[in-house]
Specification:
The complex is a heterotrimer. By secondary structure, chain A is α/β, with parallel strands linked by helices. In chain A, 31% of the residues lie in helices and 23% in strands. An 8-stranded mixed sheet of chain A has the order 6-7-8-3-9-10-12-11, sandwiched between helices. In chain A, strands 2-1-4-5 form a 4-stranded antiparallel sheet, covered by helices on one side. In chain A, strand 9 and strand 10 form a beta hairpin. By secondary structure, chain B is mainly alpha-helical. Chain B is built from 13 helices and no strands. Chain C is an alpha/beta fold. Chain C is built from 11 helices and 12 strands. In chain C, the strands form 2 sheets. An 8-stranded mixed sheet of chain C has the order 6-7-8-3-9-10-12-11, with helices on both faces. Chain C has a 4-stranded antiparallel sheet with strand order 2-1-4-5, with helices on one face. Chain C is globular and about 70 Å long. Classes of the chains: A alpha/beta, B mainly alpha, C alpha/beta. At the A-C interface, helix 6, helix 7, helix 8, helix 9 and helix 10 of A face helix 6, helix 7, helix 8 and helix 9 of C.
Chain lengths: 333, 313, 344
Amino acid sequence: MPLLDVDDLHTAFRTRFGTVRAVNGLSFSIEQDETVAIVGESGSGKSVMALSIMRLLRAANIEARGQVRFQGRNLLELPEREMRRLRGKDISMVFQEPMTSLNPVLTVKRQINETLMLHEGLSWNEATDRSIELLRIVGIPAPERRVRDYPHQLSGGMRQRVMIAIALACSPNLLIADEPTTALDVTIQAQVLELMWQLKKKFRSAVMLITHDLGVVAEVADRVIVMYAGRAVEMADVKNLFKNPRHHYTGGLLNAIPKLGSSLTEGPRQPLYEIPGNVPSLRQNIVGCAFAPRCAAATQVCREIGPTMDELAPRHFAACHHPLDAGLIKVRQ
Amino acid sequence: MWTYVLKRLLTTIPVIVVVAFIVFSILYATPGDPALILAGDNATPQQVEEVRQRLGLDKDFISRFYEWSGSVLAGDLGTSLYTRLPVVTLIGQRLLPTVSLVVLTFLIAIFVAVPLGVVAATRHGSWVDRLGMIVSVLGFSVPVFVVGYVLAYTFALKLGWLPVQGFASPQNGIWPFISSLILPSTALASLYVALISRITRSAMLEVLGQDYIRTARAKGLGEMIVVFLHALKNAAVPISTVIGLGFASLLGGAVVIETVFSIPGLGLLMVTSILSRDYPVIQGVLLLSSITYVILNLLIDLLYGLFDPRIRY
Amino acid sequence: MNESTAPLLEVRRLKKHFALSSGFLTGTQQVVHAVDGIDLAIRRGEAIALVGESGCGKSTLGRSILGLTPVTSGEILLQGERIDNLSQSAMRDMRRRIQIVFQDPFSSLNPRMRVRNIIGEPLRNFKLVKGRKQLDQRVAELLELVHLPPDVLERFPHEFSGGQRQRLCIARALATHPDLIVFDEAVSALDVSVKAQVLNLLAELQARLGLAMLFISHDLAVVEHLADRVVVMYLGKIAEIGPRRSVFTHPTHPYTRALLSAVPIPDPQIRRERIILSGDTPSPINPAPGCRFKTRCPYAFDRCQREEPALLVQPTGQAVACHLVAEGRMPAAGRPPAEASLAR
């Protein structure tokens, strides 16, 4: 049984201007000990998906339908009390902005201890000892002193490490990391990714890494899921995704990123591949393939019938009526 | 932390000096001549002049200020022009009713307004929120004396549950003391509650939308802890600021309420002194209330350091 | 030497320091050495990139060049004339020649102004057009330059996507025919696919208009794609400066190497030796003597503690400020070969 099994998840926001379908029929699964990267640009629904899984979207105008099975139980039907027991203990989350994700008026000690006291039943002193240990594990120097600090006394990289310490404190089965390194400098990002890689092995957590950075995906992920307009468009093992992208959007993304090493090639600079058009508005009900308006290979079928997620090769799925041929690295421009 | 405390204490001193100067100057600039009033309508100009000299009202401004400051610092606020009693004695007699009124109002306001604001914020958009905000708009739109008279009419005259006016000293029993203060405090609190509940609500709403609240919920913490520890502590700074600033309206309202309910406090003393141009008393009461206000705000500033560590370091 | 090879913009020994507290009760004054002695020359039509992480001073340098913040010491010259000490009215004319595009396309545009006014404002301001008809015509030309449809003059910013708004900002910057445009992290907030569009546009504009660009970015792959010359900054100083190919093919300064190796490569087949720097970037407040990079440098030795290294030109074409390099003891390391396949 997969650790997490998302089955036809729909999350919609009812606003004055219409219903925004942020997640529009998403299905995927994560196994124990796996690191799965969820890749998408703004408007893909990836962050909303994570918050829906954790049931952290609380406003009255937000509705989540479908099944999110965690260790067999559907999280969307769980009473809030049960959900609270899972949060921070079995499933925990690391957010994007380390500068604002920690409470500025509470000490680091309190913010880590809370989780330990709540979920593991430790006393304040026991929790403090464990917090210091956790800070040491995440590579914060002089943790006995740091634990008494307030967040504003720490740098961005250190705050993110504290967030990771909090998230891993109770050895969760699943760690959801939403753009954990995007707001960090690139050398600090390298440190934090290295840390996450080591800790994942030590704590044996499955990781759902949400990012828009394909470089980070290549570094860290086992499997990749590409999202577009609230849906999954391609799912594959990381090597296969980069070598043989089957969905046109994936191919477009891979060609659009500027890559280090471009100065090694002789001759005039090549323009980057541009995916024409814009991300569709999620307010309209999309008929057919969401990517069709921007796809060079779109036909009438694409505009009328939504493609299903088909297994095109072992463990390689794409939702496309005319997937790219296997072995073709460059998309026809 | 201590540099912050020291800086705040040091800056309070010039504030008090300026306050004293303004208190002194305002009365100097108002129309009306106490010597004339004291001497009476039938007095001759020489008699008026004699009164003026006796009371030292003919010397120039700076030396009067200097003399006055000197005696204030020595504890002498002067002598009332009419009762001939030391101002300090007069104030002492009237202190208890006013302090009781103000303190009770303060407590009612905070313990009603803050929870009201928190509930309005957590149930944003619901009928509780809307009702609470309508009540608070009424609170600061309806003048305090109207509220006072309405309450007095309803609960004292019509229903007879509480005394209409007057003040009972606690020496004569706790219940009479409290019951004489319930209506006036409630009337006075109406404005203060309105202010505080609104700022609590908006500060809480802003804080509850922050990323670190989302983190707290993601840790599985119960809603009570999230709201009262994680959120309220962050909202405490703007809330205390308004509590401090709004205290001025509390003091002003106290004058009105004491008049409505005939409470023999400093407010009533102030009113009679203004009507009779009794300068020393006016100055004394004004100085006392201004300094109380400055000190309260100083305490609140110092309290910030407790709430928000970023201010401390 | 004709005009086209003389530098368009020159920066000499530029320093920008910010005083924090007055030091009244705490003793020493806290001074942020944001930019601490920078020499730079930008030629006509050249694209120079300023690369570095937070706190290196690249944004402060960009703003100093624009006169948005007064310099502490040093000079800035535009075509030989000083522009760092101008009066307000003289600066207005200079502003026509140097423009800026900021990072956030959502807060850089006044939400209450229509496109016609957003792009037209500099035209009116500098009296470059007479009358409404000329204004509309010029605005339409500028929109065409940035590949936006010409009939959007009546629209408001919220009706456009992030990438389109950034293009509006670029059109606005182009309105006065500037000699130089500073791009302060102008593509950092954009999605991958949109970034490609804007980068291609910038390359096209550079070729078409002969525009000089000062491109400030922390994203090395973007910089490699766009820049002619690269300046690597660390804590207010230049660590390495040189032609794009030299810096990216033969990164010499230890910081440049660490920076390049830290960038995650979108190819799971490539596994290379990552240089992971220890610790955080030290604070730019009251920096210690010696090389700024010594606290994190894997090669630091005693000379680095005492002496600040000077920029020395290398045989590979770029100038590097490092004692180890000056003494010829830096171990060689070119770029890792593109197809090094070490299975994970």
